[in-house]
Amino acid sequence: MDTRKIAVVASVAAVALALSGCSTGSAEGQGNSPSAVSKMSPAPDSTTKNPSPSKNNTYRPASPEGPAENVPVPKLPALAKEYSEDGAASFSKFYFDLVNYAIETNNAGPIKKVTTKECIVCGVSIIDEATEAKKLGKWHVGGKHHPKILDSYISGENLAVVTVEYTADKAEIYLVPNEPDSKMDKLEPTTVAVGLEFDHGWKVYRIIGAE
Amino acid sequence: MKLQSSNKLTMLIAFCVSIPAVLGMQAPIDPANKEDHGIRMLPESIYEDHDKKENFNYKVKPQNPQPKKQRPRDASPKEKFSIRDYESCDPNTSNARFCRSIPEERTCPDGSAPIYRQVLDAQGRVVRQYRYCPGEPPKIELPKETLTQEIIIDINKFKEYPIIPSKIISNPTKFSLKNGNTHFMATEEVQSFSSSLSGSKIRIKAIPIQWNWNYGDGTTRNLNFPGEPAPNHTLRDETPTSHSYSETGKFKVEVTTLYRGEFSVDGGPWQAIPGQAAVASTPIEIDVWRTEKELIAND
C-alpha cells in the first residue's frame, strides 16, 4: 500500500478517533453499573443524574456520569504516629485509605508524602497511574481496596514490616461519561509485605508481593 | 485498487491504535498485551517491563531479574540476612503474637494455612517474601553462613517429629442408618518431644487445633473442636459432630488433625512455630443401611 493511501486512511482514522474517543472498552449500557463503595453515607442528592458539582461540600461518589466529588482527605489516626507494632499496623491501614483516596480523586499528593522513592510498586501502580489518569481526565468507578492487617513487627531500628492481605473491587475507568474505557476485574485476596521506616512518622519504603 | 471493506475495517482499527502513539498521545490500553490497568496496588508491577512508562515521574531503574534459588540480590558473601516466618492465622485458634484478622486465602493442599517467609537484610529491611506450604522445599536457598540466626524449628522441621494422629470414634461403630445422626468424634492429645540441635536441648509441643473431617459421601467439615463422647446418643439425636448420610452404602470416614507447634531452647520460653502440621488419621468405614420403618430408638 503506498504512502498516499496510508495518509488518507490515517487522516480518516484520526478523525474517527477524535470523534469516538477510540474507546475499545466494553459496549455502552452495561447491565451492572459498579457501585462506588464508600464508608460515608451518600449525600442526599447523589442519586440525581445531574453531573454538575454540588453546591455544598457533600461527598458524592464516582459514577459513570462523572468522578467523585468533595472526597475528604483521610486523616492520620493518632495510633498511626506511634513507633510500635500497633502503630505500624494502623499506619498501613491508613496507607490503603490514601490509595483509595488517589483512586477517587487522581490526587497522589497525600500518598506521595508518606512514600519514599525507593518504593517502586507504590510509584508504578499507584502514584504514576493516578498522575496519568489526572492528565488524561480519566476517572475510576469502583476499585476500592479493602485491607486486612495480618501481622506487624518491628524488624530493625526504626523499621517495621507489616503483612497485609487485601482485595480490590472491580473497577471501570471512564474518559467520557457513560462509556467505559477500560476495566479491572475484582482482585482476589493478595498478600503483601509492607516495609516501613520511621522518622518522626512512618513512611512506606517498599511493598513486596509473595512469590 | 479497491480495498475489501473488511480489510479497511482492520486497517482502520490498526491505525486507530497506532496513530495515538505516533502523535505522542498515551493510548489508554496497549492492545499488544491487552492489559487493562488503572490505579491499583499490584505487587507484580515490579516485575513488568517498564519501557512504556517513560513519561512518568518515577524513573524506574531496570530491575535485575532475580532468579529463584539464589540469594535475594547481588550480595557479597558477607551480607547477612534473617528470616521470619509468618502464618496466615485465625485469631480464634491462633497463638500468634499478632493475629487480628482471619485471612481469606486458600489453604494448602493438606488443609493447613500457608506460611509466608520474609527475608530481611542485616538492618531489618524486608527484601523478599514468598509463600509456601508445609512440606514444600524453600524457594529461596540462603546459605547458612549468611543467616544471622539459625532457624531453629520451622514448620518443616516440626513436621518431622512423629506426631500421632487422632483416633476416630463413632457411635454406632460400624454401621448406621440412612438419615440417622451418626455421631463422630476424634481424640485430642497434646504431644511432647525433645531433641538436641547444635548442642542445645530442644523441647517441642504439638497442640491439636483443628479437625478436618471427610465423611466419604462428598461432604467435609472443618471444626476447631474434636467432639465429645455421647454415651446416651441415639440415631435420632444430633450432636455438634454428628453426620447424617442421605444415601446407603459403605463410606470411608477420614479426619486430618492440624497441630500447631511450640518449641523451647534449653528450658527457655516457649516460642510459637508458624504453620500447622496436618496429620491424617486411619480412616474408618461406616456401612449405612436403610430402614422401611421409622428409626427405632435403642431401648
TrEMBL record, chain A:
Renumbered residue ranges of the record's region Disordered: 23-73
KW Signal (keyword) present: yes
Biased composition (Polar residues): 23-60
InterPro entries reported for this sequence: DUF6318
Signal peptide: 1-27
Domain annotation DUF6318: ranges: 57-181
Pfam families reported for this sequence: DUF6318 (PF19843)
Keywords: Signal
Top-level taxon in the UniProt lineage: Bacteria
Keyword Ion transport found: no
Identification of the protein by name: DUF6318 domain-containing protein
Organism this protein belongs to: Glutamicibacter nicotianae
